[in-house]
Amino acid sequence: MNSIPSLEEIQSLEEALHRPETRRSREAVGALLAEGFVEFGASGTVYDRAAVLDLLMQESGTEGELRTANYVLRPISNDAVLLTYETERSYRDGSRRCVLRSSVWKHDGLRWQMLFHQGTIRS
User: Which InterPro entries match (predicted)?
Assistant: First the structure.
């Protein structure tokens, strides 16, 4: 890998994982998550790739509206970048949840895939 991707490229891949049509497709999510993927969820639960694929297939699609902001992309090696941003989800009952997010994206020689993700609830 010779060049660092643009913020727009990685943000687009990240946001694909927010869309219900992607989240309901095991093939689409599988293409975005690297073998060895790990997530530290906002709940404190640690998920591996297989668990995330299984959980996303069970989602009801009734989660509240998600807004994203403050994306920053930082190179961490010739073939890896760190994306950080914030999300706010508003629910039908009027509550909301703000989460600081970070993802490591790695180029496997063919495409960018997410290797690690962490969500931390912001109070």
Answer: DUF4440 (IPR027843), NTF2-like_dom_sf (IPR032710)
